[in-house]
Amino acid sequence: MNRNEQTGRRDFLQRSLAGSVAGLTIASTSHVMAQTVPHSADPEITNDVDVLVVGGGTAGHVAAIQAGRAGAKTLIVERNSQLGGTTTTGGVAFPGLFDAWGKQVIAGIGWEMVKESVELDEGELPNFAKVPQHHWQNQVYTNQFLYAILAEEKCAQAGVEIAYYEFPQAVTRTDEGWQVDCVGFGTRRRVRCKQIIDCTGGAEVVGMLGLPRLREEERQPGSFLFMLGQEHQPGRNQIHRLYVHGADSTNSRTATEANLTGRKSILAKVRREGKRLMHLQPETGFRETYRIEGETLVTVNDYTSGRVFDDAISYAFYPVDLHTKTGVRPKPLQPGKVPTIPLRALIPKGSRNIIVAGRCVSSDRLANSGLRVQASCMGMGQAAGVAATLAARSGSTPLEVPLSEIHALLREHGQIVPGMG
After folding, report:
1. Is the pLDDT of residue 276 over 60?
2. Distance between CA atoms of 250 and 289, rounded to whole angstroms?
3. Are 197 and 344 within one domain?
């Protein structure tokens, strides 16, 4: 090929490529303008709020929405880039269980969000009037991407401010409640609040305060979710999963190791099987780290017997579901048994002005294996949002708020309260 031919070929390819890029740009690009962030060049910011929610996962975003809807000035701090936790970032976008023995037992804000995300995605909801042969048949297939966006919309509607990429570095008691110093890249945020809701999964704020926590020597494996060889259809099917044994979300170093281990194994699987990697979640989903030592502890006998605690604030329903190196063999609850969650299991022992929600609930290991699932965590989150709001309003602490007031506000916002219909 002579020089003229080479030049002509190069010009032709450049014109063709430019046309292709231009076509793609026209076809795929739309535009939106982000609002200007006030004082964005200033690295230091201060917030005065009623309720600070730390962690925007399964329990946290529900707690924040509930607090906002109930009139509390609320800020939610989340170290990742979206809300929803296990449902979204973890990819377990088939939450359950909202029903037991032919009727719905958990409703409220969590169910509202799941239902709306399914309807917007034109998906299908299970028939709760039908008792399934296997518990997983009534888990709800949810589009994880829609869910994350809807969570932000509902926070905005409730007046909740969201701070992504930030996490507390210091927590100090004050006469009014707490001073919480948070750090993100380019941001130092001081939050003065009346109440804290710790929804970090491992009760990390509780740990920062030196309050007692429980943890097993060996923890359940985490799951890294992915799809090989076929397209993943969000809201329609489950994803392939890889057990990451030894997965530990205690700190950034242990979480990093779990993620590196999972991705390395998936890459080896791609090479070994010769299939395309079609979907990969950004991080490992963790089942177990710390639990609080609460004002009461839910035992596996409490759980499996369906004990109705005097201060029950939500139902829970799932098999005892301990994952091990040999797999998992769920132990279904006996017919008619529906566990409950007491308010005191959300209160760190000896504390004031702080409440937790989610898998760090005060419980023994076997009870926690059933309590840790999404619907139950959503129920806890809503109850924590109510208790913290009422405590902030009255200048007290969640455990001193009359239980009748907590129940009444929960019912007002659509939750099903144990023993009250």
Report:
1. yes
2. 6
3. yes
